[in-house]
Amino acid sequence: MGPDKNLLERWRTTELLLLGGSAGSFKLLFQMVKLLPADLGKIVIIVIHRKRNFFSEIAKLFAENSRMSLREIEDKDVLEKNTIYIAPANYHTLIEKGGYFSLDVSEAVWYSKPSIDVTFECAAEVYQERCMAILLSGANQDGAEGMLKLKNSGAVTIAQHPEDAEMDEMPAAAINNGAAGYILRTDEIFKLLHTQ
Amino acid sequence: MSDTSIIITSTQITELIDLVRRVHGFDFSGYTKASLKRRVVRIMQLKKMEFYDLKHTLVNDQHFFQYFLEEITVNVTEMFRDPSFYKALNLQVIPYLSTYQHAKIWCAGCSTGEEVYSLAILLREAGLSNKSFIYGTDINTEVLREARKGIYSLRSIKSYAENYQFTGLKGSISDNFTILYDAASVHNELKQNTLFSVHNLVSDDVFNEFQLISCRNVFIYFETELQERILELFYKSLCPLGYLCLGSKETIRSDAFKRKFKVINHQENIYQKIGT
């Protein structure tokens, strides 16, 4: 069964795709990056928890396998479509009203910097119903709160089905607090992203 | 984690910026709004205040304003944050500093002093302790008081030890501290060559000439126009061929300043003043 019609329509019109994940999400994100076409016509932001202090091997690995233009975010980068942005380690990534990023070294949220909550909350304020967020596998509760704000501001929110997630705590938290508008199986998520 | 019930509008942020400027003379209008908003919400959560209470207290309680100032700016810092930066500094800049009879260094936005002491340790390792002096400045008197004390928790020093390991410096970070129970106090030898004082990058001017200015992870809180005003201040404060270090995600973007600063290390955002 394919994704529902309403969801497909929202995917087609969404301007910003947010992908959040932690433990157990790396492979999925890697496959998504590989899948997305160069001319997707959307902005993509990936927030993934990782060890601090190590120069972004992830961004390098992703860039080598992406058809879209891909970069690790630097302060005041402008959000442009057909680009995948990776949140840098040891900073929170904020989105400003003018459509650019600003970085922040303030306290970790859920022991995480970057925090998915922080970026999701900013996206909720700036992009509102013009964005879609997918929360993947992870072993803490980061992302659930931010996803709730996204949902309340009209965004499409999707949690990976906990049974499919390598670590179910993160998507489960978003389901439990009512933040997940949709709960999708991994293959359904890929089908959706594959739809032009 | 955060309280979803507190919502601050952009108009309210503007209102607060105006109020702080009029009553206390601090101008936050060039600060990035998303971060300011998060900080204000944080203060309201910590103090369990409504927006109205916050405004009222800001006007009427000077002590509260000091607290506000401390909380509105981000004072999260660490020793040897981004070890690769210190490695690059050691290789590419220290040899230049050693050619001076006396090198002056400005650490702008130094918060509680961790970066000043990291630089002091680096200089000592390079044998430049007696030939250098570090000025640490911040807008916030309370963090400067902490910086002068130079006492950090043993736990945090342990976490900086990992950073230190990756800098390629010899010895161990704990060689620079006297440890007493769960506190680590910076050796006086390192403190001797430091001075901490108040300086507001938004409103204060040149106060000395420096061979090196380090201002890392401060620009991220400023809008582009303010960044450029401060770049001009740094340019004027540097000696010819002096060095400027920004945070590893902070790049000089404006063409005008790209002509005034040569890139020494692209990855670590180390620049050198050129032109006149």
Automatic annotation (TrEMBL), chain A:
SUPFAM superfamilies: Methylesterase CheB, C-terminal domain. Residues 10-196 form the CheB-type methylesterase domain. Its EC number is 3.1.1.61. It catalyses: [protein]-L-glutamate 5-O-methyl ester + H2O = L-glutamyl-[protein] + methanol + H(+). The lineage of its organism: Bacteria, Pseudomonadati, Bacteroidota, Sphingobacteriia, Sphingobacteriales. GO terms for molecular function: protein-glutamate methylesterase activity. InterPro entries: CheB_C (IPR035909), Sig_transdc_resp-reg_Me-estase (IPR000673). Coiled coil: none annotated. PANTHER family: PROTEIN-GLUTAMATE METHYLESTERASE/PROTEIN-GLUTAMINE GLUTAMINASE, PROTEIN-GLUTAMATE METHYLESTERASE_PROTEIN-GLUTAMINE GLUTAMINASE 1. The active site is at residues 22, 49, 142. It holds the Pfam family CheB_methylest. Gene3D superfamilies: Methylesterase CheB, C-terminal domain. It is an enzyme of class 3 (hydrolase). This is protein-glutamate methylesterase. It comes from the Bacteria. It comes from Mucilaginibacter lappiensis. Keywords: Chemotaxis, Hydrolase.
Automatic annotation (TrEMBL), chain B:
One of its GO terms (biological process) is methylation. It comes from the Bacteria. Keywords: Methyltransferase, Transferase. InterPro entries: Bact_Chemotaxis_MeTrfase (IPR050903), CheR_C (IPR022642), CheR_MeTrfase (IPR000780), CheR_N (IPR022641), SAM-dependent_MTases_sf (IPR029063). GO terms for molecular function: protein-glutamate O-methyltransferase activity. Its EC number is 2.1.1.80. Residues 1-276 form the CheR-type methyltransferase domain. It holds the Pfam family CheR_N. This is Chemotaxis protein methyltransferase CheR. It comes from Mucilaginibacter lappiensis.
